[in-house]
Design a protein that fits this description.
alpha/beta, BirA Bifunctional Protein, domain 2, eight-stranded mixed sheet, three-stranded mixed sheet
């Protein structure tokens, strides 16, 4: 397993090409799995279920067709994106299990900062209940699988510009908001978030041979 951390903003097209190349190499048995921790410049990605009406400001940020599942997602500085390029044959050939594992990865990472992240039926991602009861999204999930190698991954809002999310209907859900660790009053560096992401990962997604 290779863990990679980029300190500069990574263009989305570059990251997508790199993930696709690594996924093909993993499927061929010629490269190790990868977890890549990075930030992107401000941009919007469109999943396979994206509806154009939910792109509210189409000229504001570059829009990239991602090929992953889901709808529109914003990425930008202050958001920790963790791309996981993993061989599900070494774990379970079960996409539902894998998405649930990514959700649990976010939930456990948030718990390390004293935040209760929760799943919601019918909504992708991880949610928190704000003071007053409003529910806001704090983490996003997107997955694509080829030859049982999964790529894309998760995005955790650490301290992004939340106003940027107004360019889209995040993940097609207009009745709820978006929050971040900073918005919740938690000061956390990317290095601290990365440490907790790496700590939470092995128990959930460590490779095994029992499900071959």
């Amino acid at each position: 397993m290779e863990w990679r951390r980029s300190h500069e903003l990574v263009p989305y097209d570059h990251s997508l090409r790199a993930m696709e190349e690594r996924a093909a190499a993993i499927a061929a048995g010629s490269a190790p799995e990868l977890v890549w921790l990075l930030e992107h410049p401000p941009l919007v990605t469109a999943g396979t279920s994206a509806v154009e009406a939910e792109l509210l400001a189409p000229a504001r940020f570059p829009v990239h067709r991602a090929g992953r599942g889901g709808k529109f997602t914003y990425h930008g500085p202050g958001q920790r994106t963790a791309y996981a390029v993993l061989d599900l044959t070494r774990r379970r050939r079960d996409l539902r299990w894998y998405v649930q594992s990514l959700e649990e990865w976010l939930i456990r990472t948030l718990a390390a900062f004293g935040v209760k992240g929760e799943r919601r039926e019918g909504r992708i991602g991880i949610w928190v209940v704000m003071p007053g009861g409003r529910e806001c999204k704090v983490g996003a999930i997107g997955v694509r699988v080829r030859r049982w190698v999964a790529y894309h991954g998760i995005a955790l809002n650490v301290a992004p510009n939340l106003e940027h999310f107004s360019a889209i209907v995040p993940c097609g859900i207009s009745e709820h908001g978006v929050t971040s660790l900073a918005d919740l009053g938690i000061v956390a560096t990317m290095a601290e978030v990365d440490r907790e992401l790496r700590r939470a990962f092995p128990a959930l997604l460590a490779a095994t041979t029992e499900h071959r």
